Amino acid sequence: MSAASEGFTCHPGERYEMPIVFGPTELPQVSQWGWLRALDITFVTDPAAVRPLVPAELDLPEKPTVIFSRRTFDQVDYLAGHGYEELCVGISVSHNGEDGPTKGNFWPVMWVDQVRPLTVGREFSGFGKLAADFTPIREESGDLSWEMTEYGTLLARGAIRNVKPVDDAVLGKIAKVGSIGYAFCARYMPPVVNSPGVDEVTRCEMRSQITSVKVGDAELELASPPWKDAPNGSRVMSALSSLPILELRQAMVIEGTSSFDRSTITALPRKRSAGTPVTAVAANGSVR
């Protein structure tokens, strides 16, 4: 019997994504987003309120910020040049590792309107992505606005009013700071019989080339729909909409390009509370 007729197995050294039996992924190790625009609305929140949404491995600053980043991507290499829409929710954190502290954002949830960015984000990095529908970004008289819905039910809407470009000096500073960023995610796959599953916090290095920055006044509305109207996002929106907005900061509109080297995805050592048992799966499938 030939090797090909013996059935499928993964080859060591190759990278796969679901569905795996059709061979190694064509997803490049380093992906390029040829154009992006991010409408960033940020607010300061109460650390006690946001702490339950952040893994124990990560530390919060004294005044943690939450960012709602409504993004449009185009010229995406692994989508054959097509694009997608996304809303990313991030919380400012740091991780104190062997080489010292690393600052970045923990991304508890993201919404996208395309399947593949959702699946590869979850599988490789641990980005907690859900599906949603987006209105096109509306531009009128210096204002930008958007809405995100699930089955026609509003989840969130935002606007940036009186948008104006920053001067070259400010653009240069923002471009320098934003050229390298760190994303922290929670990668999880439930345990099953004879497998412990996956439960880890990851860190990814993201690179951007920022070419344009504008600022404006932020408006943000977060809905909390019942489960029957938004079965995918209801519990998420209930938690997000309850976060106190202590200070709504100046919004930003950022344009440029981005790249992501997946070899930078690193699992962090897990921190478990004293006495917390490690989940195990019995032979009969019960969790103990």
UniProtKB/TrEMBL annotation:
Q: Where is the signal peptide?
A: none
Entry-linked InterPro entries: Acetoacetate_decarboxylase (IPR010451), ADC_dom_sf (IPR023375)
An annotated Gene Ontology molecular function: lyase activity
Listed name of the protein: Acetoacetate decarboxylase
